[in-house]
Amino acid sequence: MARSARGAATMQDVAALAGVSVKTVSNVLSGYEHVSAKMRERVMGAVGELDYEINVSARNLRVGSTRVLGLAVPELSQAYFAELADAVIRAAGARGYTVLIEQTIVDRSLEISAVAAMRRHSIDGLIYSPLAIGPGDVEQLDVDFPLVVLGERVEGSRADHVTMSNVQAMKAATLHVLSLGRRRVAVIGAQPDGPVGTAASRLRGYTEALADYGIEQDPDLIITAALWHRTYGVEAMERLLASGVPFDAVVCFNDALALGALRALHKHGRRIPEDVAVVGFDDIEDSAYSTPSLTTVSPRRDEIAQKAIDILIDRIEGPDTRLAPLHVETGYELIERESSAGVRVEREAAGISS
Amino acid sequence: MARSARGAATMQDVAALAGVSVKTVSNVLSGYEHVSAKMRERVMGAVGELDYEINVSARNLRVGSTRVLGLAVPELSQAYFAELADAVIRAAGARGYTVLIEQTIVDRSLEISAVAAMRRHSIDGLIYSPLAIGPGDVEQLDVDFPLVVLGERVEGSRADHVTMSNVQAMKAATLHVLSLGRRRVAVIGAQPDGPVGTAASRLRGYTEALADYGIEQDPDLIITAALWHRTYGVEAMERLLASGVPFDAVVCFNDALALGALRALHKHGRRIPEDVAVVGFDDIEDSAYSTPSLTTVSPRRDEIAQKAIDILIDRIEGPDTRLAPLHVETGYELIERESSAGVRVEREAAGISS
DNA sequence: TGTCTCATTTACATCGATGTAAATTTGATG
DNA sequence: CATCAAATTTACATCGATGTAAATGAGACA
Hints:
By secondary structure, chain A is of the alpha/beta class. Chain A is 38% helix and 14% strand. Chain A is built from eleven helices and twelve strands. In chain A, the strands form three sheets. The first copy, chain A, has a six-stranded parallel beta sheet with strand order 2-1-3-4-5-11. Chain A has a four-stranded parallel beta sheet with strand order 7-6-8-9, sandwiched between helices. In chain A, β8, α10 (255-267) and β9 (277-279) form a beta-alpha-beta unit. The A-B interface holds A 7, 53, 55-58, 60-61, 64, 66, 75-77, 79, 82-83, 85-86, 89-90, 93, 98-101, 103, 106, 119-122, 230, 234, 259-260, 262-263, 266, 285-286, 288-291, 293 and B 7, 53, 55-58, 60-61, 64, 66, 75-77, 79, 82-83, 85-86, 89-90, 93, 98-101, 103, 106, 119-122, 230, 234, 259-260, 262-263, 266, 285-286, 288-291, 293. Chain A binds a DNA duplex through α2 and α4. Chains A, B: InterPro entries: HTH_LacI, LacI/GalR-like_sensor, Lambda_DNA-bd_dom_sf, Peripla_BP_I.
């Protein structure tokens, strides 16, 4: 019998056909160096003849790892996370790992514990990109497998963190519109529940930029958005417009909000960038093709993905000694496009200290 | 010793702590009905105490399946595929399966064989959404595990297919602009290599619609696009504009192309929809928020995902008898938005047979 | 040719779970 | 209380691969 009665061929079958031991087949396939050329050829011939493919479950059981990493994101339908997933999959693939994606928003409103969700699967480590995470979630991050969190470091967490320089990036975005002479700069995306995580850092960047120009912060220009979706961007801008508070620029905490805001401004006849300059954050692909195209902060997703993968795999493959949690900051880039560029508002005394 | 020296607890450890056999623990965990309440409680206590989690690799090895499905898409960074993946993950999750996503475009230009790529992983079945697939690819689809292809049926393929009614949908889209009085309808997205797969069907829908109105097809209005990306939409529209051929509507083979076209039209000062009506295809999220918002054909992604998952899992769990390949068509919906709506072009004799 | 060394190949146990079938307990009945 | 059937629980083999250590083979050298 050339192969098992039913189903795929096993190493057993290959060994029998090649007339060698099972271990020799294993050696050949795993690239063990002390295998004679003759043997290798004989085994590979049998492998080809039987269309043999290794049984991954059996190998995983034996070696105790799966070479599968988890990636937990809120929803793939949000462009930022889809593009992030793309980058993570590529970075992982280059190091011989596969990525299993878990969506943490299942019922469209509630974020579930990614970590708990991943336990069902056998993964070697997890990259977790939470929507928002606060100090209360520390214990959720205290797990017994390698975990890299994308986003602001949580106080007391033992997990590794990779995050872009949110404060500086948002400060740069805000300084950009200030440098164009705008002085009434609104911001969209503050969290209703108070400042935590990413939103807090970005808000801080905004505040610091205003301070640099000696401008006092106007609470009426700080608009909240419960979720960073386009719909909420539309809704937030509608609120701002309805309030009647004057403004000549908006910096948004992500591109989806900005695109929504763009839409609302357009609907209400505000010219962009003449009347209002708009800046987003994330540099998702749409932003380059919107009308007008969107000025935004690019977070260098590839760099984030690469760093996260490297740290995670080093933890997985490295020695057991538990080093201190890492906290890596990645760079950013301000991409100037039509929604802000080209139109400088002249003021009596443009520049610092208006 | 309460548990293995190093690493996670095993069923062995749980059994020892609870003072029962390993099989009883297995029975409790797998919900076997003939287990006394007392036993169940005792075992679950031990499970909790040891933080026991089942070893998925061992279980998979024993039962011979993994409850993991593959989903092969070109790139997650394309919104359509990200939204599709979202839908597939949800549908699979509802039936207790996990989804492993494989990107078939790795070097940004060449599509690799998804099926070959999946062989590395241990999946129970595969959903394959190819970019384009022609008759030459039949053997690629002739595999020995359950496979559902999303897209036009390939002649001679033994795989199951789930596809939307491309011809009818595109016909409806074209009829829509014709009903607005437009008579010079361009199309963007034809394949340079000749008509195959999805592009062929959509082109046919366009042709049929023109025929219904007794309009002769003008080859100058059929614009090719090698890839259905925004950039190619921009480039295709630039070509059309440069050609000087008059047109008052464009139907695009997907939303990305349409958004690119929108952008190019805007740049060249054409008013939408006054001068040119634009229609897309796919109903990705951006389309509702572009300026102007995009009229498009919604393919009911949830329905596609659900059908594909149901067929695939039925094949996996069903009896071995190989039924004839299934070919399921899913519905569509024309979503009218700003890029076409509201502006009717009056003609001497608007209506059938101009 | 005999002996020793180093390179290859092999036998066997093992990873952690589940299916099979047998052993044991439980409870009903005469 | 003995007997039998049904309900529970258990022992053991097994899924398909790899690590360990021992067995075998091939040269090298005296």
